């Protein structure tokens, strides 16, 4: 089949997902994309921009069998502006995130229009694909609450309509070479996320500060962000732990990034929201021991763990994180971080390898096309 992919924010996990799928897909693809900056503007203008670009491609003879877009596109608006041949295509919306339940630091920053765009995209799609069941369920619950706050004509039926057309399709994760467990003489803790409010850096800083005061010996790899746009907490963290930090900030190449993962014993997430968690899965693949919030998408992501999973999770507060980290440092120092089974977490996330998910993704598109032809 010939697939048209529309990606208004071609960067980060959006790009990794699309590129990874296309490299392995049995289908042929055309990608229309925009650079990954000014996300609010991308959500506003992408439908118009893509409609005009696709109109030109259709005039040049382009033909497709199906359309897939990400949640950053106002799909309903695009379909109203696109050439008729494209507007009739079977279509899938892939939700990497959503603007209904995405946390904001200040309530005034919440924009109702972007949440409504996600809803209209879900309604316009033949199917909405989510990267986890947690994401789907939290979005639909949040959407219902959101609509109930509207003054009148609340389209609550939209929740059930989107639910009925929803599917879970996990993204593939690129290979990461596994390193030897307990690779560092001193326990090395990894925090790898965007340097933004929703990833909870303050909680991490409070926990490691308490560990340092209690005399625990550890090293730090704090990566994933850009110092130029970082929250003030990161400058404070760097100053406080400069003598313990091995790697800091954005890693310029994939090899550099994987090297840091392989040089870490424990990976910690303090995210306030997580709809899947590719970075954590990559760190697990590299051999890091995960310590994760007991909610969000993480229990689902690690649901294939054998035996008791509780040591990999902590309650979402600083005290529990501090105690769990202290226990892991002590186990590392005693030579038993993984308690004799260093591949346990890697086995649990192997189901997200690209060769495990690619057939389901390709089959899913074919199923959507078949169903559309019968209707």
Short structural summary:
With 375 residues, the chain is an alpha/beta fold.
Please give a structural write-up.
The structure is a single chain. With 375 residues, the protein is an alpha/beta fold. The chain has two domains: 2-172 and 354-374, Rossmann fold; 188-352, Glycogen Phosphorylase B (Rossmann fold), CATH 3.40.50. It contains 15 helices and twelve strands. It has helices spanning 12-24, 39-59, 75-81, 84-87, 112-124, 133-148, 157-164, 201-213, 232-240, 254-262, 278-285, 298-301, 318-333, 344-349, 354-374, and strands at residues 2-7, 28-33, 66-70, 91-95, 127-130, 166-168, 188-192, 219-223, 245-249, 266-268, 289-293, 313-314. The strands form two sheets. A six-stranded parallel sheet has the order 2-1-3-4-5-6, sandwiched between helices. A six-stranded parallel sheet has the order 9-8-7-10-11-12, sandwiched between helices. α6 (133-148) runs antiparallel to α7. The radius of gyration is 22 Å and the shape is globular. 40% of the residues are buried. The mean pLDDT is 93.
